[in-house]
Every structure is written in C-alpha cells, then in structure tokens.
Amino acid sequence: MDVFQGFFFRKFGIMWIIVLIVIIAALAAVIYHDTHNFKIYEYEVSTDKVSGNYTFVFLTDLHNYVFGKDNERLIEAIDNIHPDAVISGGDMFTAHTRDGKFHSEIAFSLLKKLAKRYPLYISNGNHEEKIKELNKLYGNAFERYKNSLKREGIVYLDNESAYFNDDIRITGLCLPTAYFKKIVKKEMEETLLSKKIGELSLADKEKFQLLIAHNPLYFDEYRKWGADLTVSGHVHGGIIRLPLIGGVISPAITLFPKYDGGKYEKDGRTMILSRGLGTHTIHVRLFNPGEVSVIRVRGN
Length: 300
Description:
Elements: H1 2-35, E1 38-47, E2 53-59, H2 72-81, E3 85-88, E4 95-96, E5 101-102, H3 105-115, E6 120-122, H4 126-133, H5 135-138, H6 141-150, E7 155-156, E8 160-164, E9 168-173, H7 192-197, H8 202-205, E10 208-213, H9 219-225, E11 229-232, E12 241-242, E13 246-247, E14 262-266, E15 269-273, E16 290-299
C-alpha cells in the first residue's frame, strides 16, 4: 500500500508540476505579447454641435515603448486610419524621481513624425506634470520638452484651449500630481477646473467641447464643467484584465477600478478611456494589449 501511494503521489505530483510550468509559460507568453502589441479600438460619438464627421486618433501612456523600429508599426497603423487629427493624452515618457532623470527621445521622435502628417494636440499626464512641478529635481526640463514640441507645430495644451475646424474646442487639463495619489482618491476642489481651464462662455457652449484629462476618476467633474467628450488614460486598462470582470488593478493600487477602459456615458456626456500603450515600474500587461483609440465624432 505504501509503495502504491508513493508511486501515485510521485506520478501525479510530477504531472501537476508539469501543468504548473505550462501555465506559467503560457502566461509569460501572453504578457510578452501584450506588452509588445496593441489593438485598435473604435468609438463613435454623435452630437448636434458639429456639422460634419471627424476622425481622431487618441494615444496615451506610451511610457517610451516602441512598436517596431522607430515605432513604425504604430505610425503605419495610424496612417491606415487616415485621421483628421491626432490627440495625445500624456505620459508619453516615464519620469523617475529617484535620480531626476527622464528620457523623452522616443516620445519626441514619434510625436514629431506624427505632426508632419496630422494636426496634433497634446496635454500632460502625471509624468509630464511631475517634471513640471519638481523643478528643483528636473530644472527647466518640462519647458524645454514642451517648447521643442511646439517648434514642430504641435499644439501643446497646458491648461489651454484651441479650436479644430471652428466647431470643436479642444482643452488640455493638467491636474496637479496631488490628484494622482495612490490608494486614496483626492477630492477635487469645486473651483479647481475653473481656475485651471476657465469657465465655458455662452459661445463656447455652442461648440463641441473635447477635454483631454489624463485621470478618468474625475469624469463627473469634467462633464459638469461642460465637456461633451473627455479622453483619458492613466489606468493602463487595469494592467490585468479578466473576462466579465475587466481590469484588476490600477496604477493607484486600486483593485477593480471603476473606470478601466472603454466608453462611458452619463447625462449626455461621454468619456473614452484608453487602455494606453505602454507600462512603467512593473512591466506587465495580461490579457490587455495596448490600445490605439479611433474616435469618430458624427454630426447629427
């Protein structure tokens, strides 16, 4: 009997070890695939505030990732979409506070190439905001980065607005890094948005208001301010995505975040939350490849 039990446990113990190795290898393969590839997600927003139809490509959270040599795969995918304009939601590079260094060459190269092809509007994520706020650590690095992009014809919206084809107003909201705290969400001051990006005038309210706001947690505040469409990122799709559940954890170390990716609507206002393209710190994406968002604004 003891001999039989020993044989049984040896045989099935080895089998379970093999199964475990296969599962780990499969998950590692998926992680490798998802951190090196992206999918194109299409969204449609209808409005009576524009007379035509417009296609925007929205990119966010690149974090210095490269898809093909010099991001050729990414650029080719965008070219195949033929957008009217490209919008970048920030975190195109990663800023490290340990040594006060950041490398923006990859982000700058991609944005420069896209700006030669399309109108390009960009605003800050928390990593751009970090180098702007921590000037003792980074010096004037943010101003140099911003000005270098503006010299390439890129419209850099640092709490500013610009018009696209007269009937679309694009605003870039740059929230202080305090609004990107981990674990506990900071409540937004009632007057913060009006202080940062102003109140909408009667004339502006007649325009289709597109707001670039990196942090999706404040969607209610954005729509109350007057954003018809908010485009956000930051959450990286929840890093790990599970069927029927969605994203598992956000960069703010929140389990099963309320907003993890996709299209959200409330009171006639819309938020499109990209799963982003890259990662930082913990370079894991599981069942969660990067995202290139195609947003089609349809005039009624």
